[in-house]
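TA notes, week 10

Several of you asked for a full example with nothing omitted. So below is the full record: structure tokens for the whole chain, then the designed sequence directly under it. When grading your own attempts, check the secondary structure regions first.
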């Protein structure tokens, strides 16, 4: 059973670059709920204590648990370029912070490799099949 239900990457202007659901039992209603959860997490990231608002950001920032819902837990990661990585996991999943940090770093590396492609239009939706496949292969590692 997969622990990760959704992976999202959001640009610095809070525009969705990549959102993918990984649950086998996703209905349209659940998909909408996951998108809503990701959207709500953006407000929490901005309001989270310790998130620098100045131009000086650390090179990486694991934000930890953003908030739990009745079915899920939402975790976040912020890069120095203000790209936000958000994952939604099942509430009954027991995941260590060290494992989450490794997952986010691997996800960031996939993102960097994809957006470094000269054919990628900066700050646009990621539609690469290779990126989707790489993320799909990464999800079971957590």
């Amino acid at each position: 059973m997969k622990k990760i239900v959704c992976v999202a990457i959001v640009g610095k202007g809070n525009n969705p670059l990549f959102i993918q659901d990984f649950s086998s039992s996703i209905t349209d209603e659940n998909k909408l709920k996951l998108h809503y959860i990701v959207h709500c997490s953006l407000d929490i990231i901005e309001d989270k204590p310790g998130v620098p608002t100045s131009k000086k950001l650390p090179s990486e920032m694991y934000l930890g648990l953003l908030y739990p819902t009745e079915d899920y837990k939402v975790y976040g990661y912020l890069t120095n370029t203000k790209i936000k990585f958000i994952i939604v996991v099942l509430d009954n999943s027991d995941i260590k912070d060290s494992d989450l940090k490794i997952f986010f770093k691997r996800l960031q590396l996939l993102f960097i490799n994809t957006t470094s492609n000269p054919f990628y239009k900066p700050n646009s939706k990621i539609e690469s099949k290779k990126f989707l496949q790489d993320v799909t292969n990464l999800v079971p590692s957590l």
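Residues 4-141 form a domain with the Beta-Lactamase fold (CATH 3.30.450.70). Use that as a sanity check on your answer.
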